[in-house]
């Protein structure tokens, strides 16, 4: 059944007013008819079964609340060194599917892309749309938040109960257990930090260690910058939901 996120302001007395994008998708893409059912999710993460009752006017009627929780039992913040090209959009989509709570673009010493807040804000609506579509597809209760890029000095504001940074030098030195040990301590929240294509400068790792962040290896293979956060999220998901 098709799912849609709606703002609380769209809901009045059990009626949902579709926004233009949602209306076009229901009417033109999905070609739904009067009386067809969808699931909508409000800003609190509550699911509702809804019926299309005014297709031309773009309105749904809420039928009943649904008891469904598809979120990880911990909050996961991904601090991700901005990559070049469309890799950031790929990671936004896949990290959302894997359960991330917040995505924090990180401008590092070796970042190949130059991005200031004004440039980022122009692209933010597109980023948010990618996240929303991925949240709907993966049956999330929430849409993860993506914030404006930060620098190293601001990193302390996004730390959690457990904090780790993927560091290829740890992998090269044969370190294989730090990530596992960190996850054993996890009860409420974790921040995972991944660098851009060129990795982290040694001074950045030193600064992170001073903040209490643990460098971790991710196995014997060296992963691309867009693969590492997805690997880490997959491991977290396995440990919290399947182990």
Automatic annotation (TrEMBL):
Q: Which reaction does it catalyse?
A: uridine(1498) in 16S rRNA + S-adenosyl-L-methionine = N(3)-methyluridine(1498) in 16S rRNA + S-adenosyl-L-homocysteine + H(+)
The keyword Manganese belongs to this UniProt entry's keyword annotation: no
Annotated ranges, domain Ribosomal RNA small subunit methyltransferase E methyltransferase: 71-236
Top enzyme class, one word, equals: transferase
Q: Where is the Ribosomal RNA small subunit methyltransferase E PUA-like domain?
A: 24-63
Q: Domain of life here? A: Bacteria
Q: What role does this protein play?
A: Specifically methylates the N3 position of the uracil ring of uridine 1498 (m3U1498) in 16S rRNA. Acts on the fully assembled 30S ribosomal subunit.
Q: Which protein, by its recorded name, is this? A: Ribosomal RNA small subunit methyltransferase E
- Give the species: Intestinibaculum porci
């Amino acid at each position: 059944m098709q799912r849609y996120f709606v703002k609380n302001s769209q809901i009045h007395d059990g009626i949902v007013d579709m926004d233009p994008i949602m209306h076009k998708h229901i009417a033109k893409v999905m070609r739904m008819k009067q009386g067809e059912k969808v699931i909508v999710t409000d800003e609190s993460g509550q699911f509702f079964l809804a019926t299309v009752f005014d297709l031309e006017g773009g309105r749904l009627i809420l039928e009943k609340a649904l008891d469904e929780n598809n979120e990880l039992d911990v909050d996961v913040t991904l601090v991700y060194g901005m990559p070049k090209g469309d890799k950031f959009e790929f990671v936004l989509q896949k990290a959302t599917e894997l359960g991330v709570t917040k995505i924090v673009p990180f401008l590092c010493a070796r970042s190949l892309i130059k991005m200031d807040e004004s440039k980022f804000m122009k692209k933010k609506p597109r980023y948010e749309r990618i996240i929303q579509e991925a949240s709907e597809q993966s049956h999330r209760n929430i849409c993860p938040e993506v914030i404006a890029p930060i620098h190293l000095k601001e990193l302390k504001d996004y730390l959690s109960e457990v904090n780790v940074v993927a560091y290829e030098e740890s992998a090269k030195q044969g370190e294989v257990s730090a990530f596992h040990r960190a996850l054993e301590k996890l009860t409420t929240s974790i921040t995972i930090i991944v660098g851009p294509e060129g990795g982290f400068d040694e001074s950045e790792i030193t600064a992170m260690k001073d903040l209490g962040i643990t460098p971790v290896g991710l196995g014997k293979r060296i992963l691309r910058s867009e693969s590492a956060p997805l690997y880490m999220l997959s491991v977290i998901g396995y440990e919290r939901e399947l182990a």
